């Protein structure tokens, strides 16, 4: 593998951002933290199921493939999580209005209530963590985080399109 040139080396700020994101992911991904959050919300779900549940709550009813695409995971992963959520009574499968053969996944009233409780517990913790931040700092942080996520998603989609183009027969 070739050695990167100095021009390819990341700026110190990029390295700092990557380290900070790693710390955030580590803090939010801790099993005990998740268990405390779920206990406070009264929702007995694992992290993957909560991620799927929150994505469903943030959108129109989705086909499983659309849901997998939004989460940037394999469809089989979504299928397992949706089955878990369906058994728990948080989601249901409904006919697609445009194609009666297809199914979409939507929240049940119990699912909406679970998401609301999870979000409230998360917001409460976030409010405590950011209590000393000014409204302007909070607005700036929110805008920059949304921009970061949008740029990450654009990069992932671009890389996937490149991979598909390279794999396509000539």
TrEMBL record:
InterPro entries: HTH_MarR-typ (IPR000835), MarR/SlyA-like (IPR039422), WH-like_DNA-bd_sf (IPR036388), WH_DNA-bd_sf (IPR036390). It holds the Pfam family MarR. Transmembrane segments: none annotated. It comes from the Bacteria. Residues 14-150 form the HTH marR-type domain. SUPFAM superfamilies: Winged helix' DNA-binding domain. Gene3D superfamilies: Winged helix-like DNA-binding domain superfamily/Winged helix DNA-binding domain. This is MarR family winged helix-turn-helix transcriptional regulator. It comes from Streptomyces bluensis.
């Amino acid at each position: 593998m070739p050695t990167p040139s100095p021009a390819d080396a990341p700026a110190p700020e990029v390295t700092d951002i990557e380290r900070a994101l790693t710390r955030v992911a580590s803090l939010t991904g801790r099993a005990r933290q998740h268990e405390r959050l779920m206990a406070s919300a009264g929702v007995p779900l694992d992290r993957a199921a909560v991620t799927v549940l929150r994505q469903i709550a943030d959108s129109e009813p989705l086909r499983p493939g659309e849901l997998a695409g939004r989460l940037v995971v394999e469809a089989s992963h979504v299928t397992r999580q949706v089955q878990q959520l369906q058994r728990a009574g948080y989601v249901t499968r409904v006919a697609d209005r445009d194609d009666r053969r297809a199914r979409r996944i939507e929240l049940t009233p119990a699912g909406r209530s679970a998401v609301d409780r999870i979000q409230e517990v998360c917001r409460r913790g976030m409010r405590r963590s950011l209590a000393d931040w000014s409204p302007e700092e909070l607005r700036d942080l929110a805008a920059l985080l949304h921009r970061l996520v949008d740029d990450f998603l654009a990069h992932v989609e671009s890389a996937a399109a490149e991979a598909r183009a390279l794999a396509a027969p000539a």
